[in-house]
# Entry
Amino acid sequence: MSGEESRGTGPIVRVRGLRYRAGAREIFAGVDLDFPRGAVTAVMGPSGSGKTTLLRLITGQARPDSGSVEFDGQDVAALPRTALYRMRQRMGMLFQNGALLTDLDVYENIAFPLREHTRLPERLVRHLVLTKLQAVGLRGAARLKPAELSGGMARRVALARAIVMDPDLLIYDEPFVGLDPISLGVVLRLIRRLNDTLGVTSIVVSHDVREITAVADHCHLLSGGRIVASGPPAEVAASQHEDVRQFMHGLPDGPVPFHYPAPDYADQARQVL
Amino acid sequence: MVAAMIRELGDSLQEALGALGRYALFGARLVAETPRALLRFGLVVEQVHNAGALSLVIIMLSGLFVGMVLGLQGFDLLQRFGSEESLGTAAALGLLKELGPVITALLFAGRAGTALASELGLMRATDQLAAIEMMAVDPVRRVVMPRFLGGVISMPLLAAIFSMIGLFGAQLVGVQLMGVDQGQFWSQMRAAVELDDVMEGVLKSVVFGVACSLVAVYEGYHSLPTAEGVGRATTRTVVISSVSVLLLDYMLTAVML
# Structure
């Protein structure tokens, strides 16, 4: 389906000089990033550092103020609507909460992209859906409604849906949030296994340091609108950069202050009285 | 002071015109998408079930009671002029031309409209619309259009059912309870009600169906992705739909009289 289109050899996603503001707040102040083909790359950073915004820019849901985000050599922001949709068919995205369509059962959720983009016979659709469900260990849950699934199961169904069109790029937005240790382990292993067996590229956005460093080949750490560290997880973990140390070791105070900016305590107390 | 008031009035007017423009653009897009959406009629039928079939009980119950009240009030009024045999005509004209389309539209806005707006709002809040976009599917085409058309098709059907049940209610009270002659009730109605009267009601219910469905899908689709945003979209749907129906009713009546 889409694999034939992806014949490039450089990074599958290339970000250059990215600047982006949300209202008065500067999210990215000139960011350069590469996501190597075939690897699992983690994007880490404290809350509000722009991780999800970066995903929105890669998938064309937002446009940079300046700079470029390229997917397989194409400038995402410059793509017309039809080309953007064609590009998205080569991407699979796992949302933080799964984002399953609540009026459809598990089977129909996974069949959704196939029914929308192909005219495959029902027998083949069924085969593909069951294969993907088997890959995430939920073939037996095919007829359950999303409301009947646990958080971990919903995430795995969403993963099956994300891979059903055989994408070149899999994007995970905070895949570990709210999962129990067993579900977390399952999702963690699935990310690695799907990346290696399907030969895709994976981008995982997370702030779960321990989990993500166990599965990623490369890490980028975002802070204050810039990349403060890049490289293999062990290398990033050993960095002495102040932002990296605070994030990796979970220190309550540092470049990201514990206290939200406020007027002098004594002045404020007097005003209240 | 006066300058501030004028400025405030100007701002409000500008905001209202802007909102009207956004509605018009969204409506134009829905109209443009209609032929393509009708090709996937199965999706539309599903939404006719959700907006129409699931509203049947409330429409039928309301129709019955409105018809019964019409029978009572009509009988009381007509008796004063010694023309209670005209009750059938009065009830039929009242229901077909006014009460049927208007009350159905108000009930439709409260039941199906709010359901549509909150469903779309929740889809926005839970990233379902973003997920559909990420699967390279246009959410307006796949999600909004079938719901809009489902509403537009359901409204005239519900209004017709409302009027029929209402007539039955008026007959029940007028003939069975108050003793109006059954033959007079039906024959006078048949003689006085013309096709134009029926068509006036049909046209009104189609226009109200378009207005209520447009408001519901617009407000739901554009709601803020929070609990408060969904709540506000639902409230706005009822308020804007109801006011629009009453305003449009006056305009249509004035044109068609």
